[in-house]
Amino acid sequence: MSTSEKFQSVFVALAALAGLGLGLLWPVGEAAGRLVLPALVLMLTAVFAQVDAGQVRRARSARTVVAASLVLNFVFTPLLAWALGAGLLGGSPDLRIGLLLLLVTPCTDWYLVFTGLARGHMGVAAAVLPVNLVLQLLLLPVYVLLLGGEAAMVGTGTLVEAVLLVLVVPLVLAVFLREAARRWRGDAWRDAVLVPLASAAVLPLLYAAVLAMFAWQARTVLAHLGDLVALLPPLAVFFTVAPLVALLVAGLLRLPADQRATLTMTTVARNSPIALAIAVAAFPGRPLIAVALVAGPLLELPVLALLSQLVRVRPKDSSPP
Question: Can you list the GO cellular component terms from the UniProt entry (predicted)?
Fold first, then answer.
C-alpha cells in the first residue's frame, strides 16, 4: 500500500480544508462547481479500467461466501441504512439521503487492498468486485426511491439519468480503454501499463473533486457544520454492527479464516466515490447530500485498517486459493 493510500483519509480532509479556504477567500464557487462532475467521471473511469470481469470465475470454489456477501451487501446493509437514517437522522432529509447513498454502495476497489492486508481470499474478493458493480448500478435507483421516501424528493428519470452518467458512461469508457489496449498492445501491456496508470490516477482525481466541491459549497458547509456532526453516530453504529454481523455469519457458515476476512472487508467497505458522483448528478440543488458523503471515508478508512489487523489470517489457517 502506497503512502497516499495509507493516508487517504488525511489527504481527503486536507483537500476539503483547502477547498473551504479557497471558497471562503475568493469567489471561485461557480468555476469550481463545473469541475466536480467531470473529475468524478474521470475518476470512476480509472476505477473501472482496473476491473476484469473475468475474475468472477474465481468464485466458483467459494460460492457460499460470495452468496453471503451479496445478501449482506444488498439486503442487510440497505435495511440497516434505512433504519439508521430514520432513527438518528429523521429531521435531516439531506443527511439521510447522503447516508443511504454511502451505505448502499459496496466498495469496488479499496476492500481489495485491506483484504490483502488481512490475508483474505483474494480470488473471492476479486470475483465479488464486478458483481458488486453491476448490482449497485441496477439497484441504486431502487434503494433511493424505496428507502429514501419523501427525503429523496427526486424523480425516477432524474435518478436513472444520474446513474447512467456517473456509472454507465465511465464503465463504457473503461471497457473501451481495456479492449483498445488489449487489441493494440496485448493483455500483458494492458495489465502492466494501463491498469497501474489508472490506479495511480484515482486518488488525485478524488482529491481534486473533493477540493472543487468544498470550494463550490464552502458557505453551505460553514452553515451546516453542526448537521455534519450528526452523521457521526449512525456511521459509528454501521462500522460497529457491519463487521460483527459479517463475523457472525462467517461463523455460522463455518467459513475458512481467509474467506471470513474477505467477507468482513466486503461487508464493511463502502464506495464513497460512486456515491459522491451520484449525489452531485442527481441532487445538484442539495449540496449538503454531497458534502455529507465526504465524512464517510474519514471514518471508514481507519476502521478498515484496524479490521484488517483484527481479522488477519495466519498462513496455516488459509484455504487453498
Answer: plasma membrane
